[in-house]
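Lab notebook, page 48
Experiment: co-folding of the full assembly
Goal: obtain a model of how the components sit together before planning crosslinking
Operator: M.T.
Materials (sequences as entered):
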Amino acid sequence: MPDRVLRAMSRPTIDHRGPEFQAMTHRLLGEMKLVFRTEHPVLIYPSSATGAWEAAITNVLSPGDGVLAFNQGFFAEKWAEVAGRFGLNVQFKPWDSRRGLTADAVMEALHSERARNVKAILVVHNETSTGVTSDVAAIGNALRESSCPALLMVDTVSSLGATDFRHDEWEVDVTVTGSQKGLMLPPGLSFVALSPRALAASESSGLPNSYWSWRDHLEFNKNGFFPYTPATNLFFGLDEALSMLREEGLPDVLQRHTRLAGAARAAVSAWGLEGYPLEPAESSNALTAVMMPDGVDADEVRRIVLEQFDMSLGTGLGKLQGRIFRVGHLGHFNALSLMGTLAGVEMGLVSAGVPVNREGVSAAMEFLLNKSKAE
Ligand code: PLP
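Observation: model returned without errors.
Model output:
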């Protein structure tokens, strides 16, 4: 998290019904549209991203509606579970979580008999539990070409601000994200971007909601306010983070993430280890998930790295616990922060007695040097 963002948040809280706040709301909502690449409304909630999942579901769907989701990983499963808790008819399809979800798989599932009543398709753009990114553009195009009326809902919690994402162009209906990843903020804000189709569907939704109501938010946001006390100091941080993204330029931000992810993958293969994603082209810009050889507990490597170098690696979630660790490289992160990170991982692997070639850090340096020459 950038110091600039932390400092911005340390200001005294202002009146959330006053003119300074009002101007900030208009600015933030306008700028978030640029990040989501949309001309349609964006809403901000004082919640973690799980709240925005619930908002997406309860604003457009009705009890008994069909929802299609795929086992992309831990977060895809959790989102489908939220839909199930609201009495929706969730079809949770098996999927090889080492591969990005394909448009063909989505279309095939939609053509099956049971899929007749599917009103929404839930897709996780970057599955943070696996480090696999899916081609949302292809899924969006396939859906619209087939004139499928189901709404496309996409989780961009760990892709927005790290990976190319285009809400309007890719015909996404509801995009969900959180503050704590590419937006470089602490946890505590979530966001939804809406399409005109999603707004129209919200007029006839049969699921009750109150805190998450889009109608209330849109009504208040028009005038620069919120239907309840907003997380004002996180807004100060968001204002600063958006300035930083604007200063660097979104395309350059995304390119920086792509470059760092490539270097991290170069380190993994030089260590002689395997990344969890099967296809480099589907590997995340935001994190690298590293598989441990049989008999090695990934959490033991994590424990050693934390203890010796005060660095937290991500744990394997769900069925991947103990099998993988995850190296985050998103947000306020540069080549030198990556090199420090990879040095910590390499030393941790060696300390843990994992059989690796001690060449990952130099492979990553080589990758970065070649990239900067090429640019
Ligand atoms: N979706 C994805 C892809 C995530 O990575 C996360 C959290 O890491 C979530 C949803 C849930 O977000 P939160 O923990 O902010 O509720």
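Interpretation: The first strand starts at residue 42 and ends at 45.
Next step: discuss with group before ordering constructs.
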